């Protein structure tokens, strides 16, 4: 009988490894990879926590959430129509004091917007809530509008990060760094693996990691490229990619600083790993991030009330 594994993630969230295309986990990315950053590719092996590396006193974890409150259609003067979405989004920072073993919400902000390609759309006021127009380029197909929320959400994440930072802390962003690569001492934390960047021999090192180990640092030559490495969190199941996350930092850093951040991530991130009985995305969805997501979603407001207010605003506009 062929061996098989059951992924611990709730199917509603996809899987912890999402293959690119139909080729399965072996489907390669087209990104250029420099695997010789920390160790020569021929010498790759699992790396343990270094005894001389101490966790930072303070870790800041940043995340954002978004929600579509309603889909809309505009009625243009020429008889045409454009789709749109009224969306709410929020970003926040959890400050984790590792010395005291305490975590608290350091900053949180909520934004909203009406995303559409309509040239005539105006801000929508629904009760006490305003949805400013975010005009998107192109034809504005409905299926592509949710992606337009990401830019203002990222800007909000940067704003709350700047408001919460002090010298010497470590900032961990949930997801790829992308336009946040300029932030100092910052890591991107990627929970699910959509692409496989390494060849079969180096991938074997990654899936052979024990909990609390990482692979050597490598460099991706993509438009959003940078230094990257994989590590395995504790509490994972037996599947090859269970509990493995990818961490990244800015390509503008010297190699030795990137390696220092990789070592720092290994003594920091595993302590935040979640448990399956508490989180369907365990262990990758870190405990402070899970709590932050719940707090931010609550701050978005009641989706049903907002949709009702939007419908009433639309009715008033047609009178």
Structure description:
The chain is α+β, with helices and mostly antiparallel strands and 319 residues long. Helix content is 22%, strand content 26%. It contains six helices and twelve strands. A hairpin with a 5-residue loop joins strand 10 and strand 11. The protein is elongated. The N terminus is likely disordered.
Q: Indicate the multimeric state.
A: single chain
Structural class estimated from helices and strands: alpha+beta
Widest β-sheet, arrangement of strands: 1-10-11-12-9-8-2-3-4-7
H/E series, N to C?
EEEEEEEHHEEHEEEHHH
General shape: elongated
Determine the strand fraction and express it as a percent band. Answer: 25-35%
Helix content: 10-25%
Quantity of strands, as a count: 12
Q: Report the C-alpha radius of gyration, rounded.
A: 22 Å
- Uncertain segments of ≥5 residues (pLDDT<50)? 1-6, 19-26
- Distance, first to last CA: 68 Å
> Overall pLDDT, averaged?
88
Largest sheet: 10 strands, mixed
Q: Helical element count?
A: 6
């Amino acid at each position: 009988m062929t061996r098989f594994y059951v992924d611990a993630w709730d199917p509603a969230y996809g899987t912890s490894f999402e293959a690119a295309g139909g080729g399965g986990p072996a489907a390669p990315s087209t990104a250029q990879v420099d695997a010789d950053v920390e160790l020569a590719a021929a010498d790759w092996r699992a790396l343990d926590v270094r005894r001389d590396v101490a966790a930072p006193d303070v870790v800041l974890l940043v995340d954002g959430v978004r929600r579509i409150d309603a889909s809309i259609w505009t009625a243009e003067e020429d008889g045409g129509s454009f789709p749109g979405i009224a969306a709410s989004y929020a970003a926040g920072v959890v400050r984790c004091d590792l010395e005291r073993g305490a975590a608290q919400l350091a900053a949180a902000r909520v934004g909203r917007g009406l995303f559409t390609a309509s040239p005539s759309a105006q801000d929508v006021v629904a009760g006490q809530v305003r949805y400013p127009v975010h005009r998107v380029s192109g034809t504005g197909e409905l299926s592509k509008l949710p992606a337009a929320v990401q830019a203002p959400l990222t800007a909000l994440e940067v704003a709350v990060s700047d408001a919460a930072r002090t010298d010497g802390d470590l900032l961990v962003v949930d997801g790829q760094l992308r336009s946040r690569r300029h932030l100092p001492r910052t890591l991107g934390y990627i929970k699910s693996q959509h692409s496989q960047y390494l060849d079969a021999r180096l991938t074997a090192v990654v899936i052979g990691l024990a909990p609390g180990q990482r692979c050597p640092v490598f460099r991706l030559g993509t438009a959003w490229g940078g230094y990257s490495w994989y590590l395995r969190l504790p509490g994972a199941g037996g599947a090859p990619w269970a509990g493995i996350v990818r961490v990244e930092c800015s390509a503008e850093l010297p190699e030795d600083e990137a390696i220092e951040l990789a070592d720092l991530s290994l003594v920091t991130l595993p302590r935040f790993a979640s448990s399956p009985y508490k989180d369907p995305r365990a262990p990758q969805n870190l405990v402070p991030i899970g709590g932050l997501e719940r707090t931010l979603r609550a701050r978005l407001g009641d989706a049903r009330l907002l949709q009702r207010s939007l419908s009433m605003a639309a009715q008033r506009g047609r009178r």
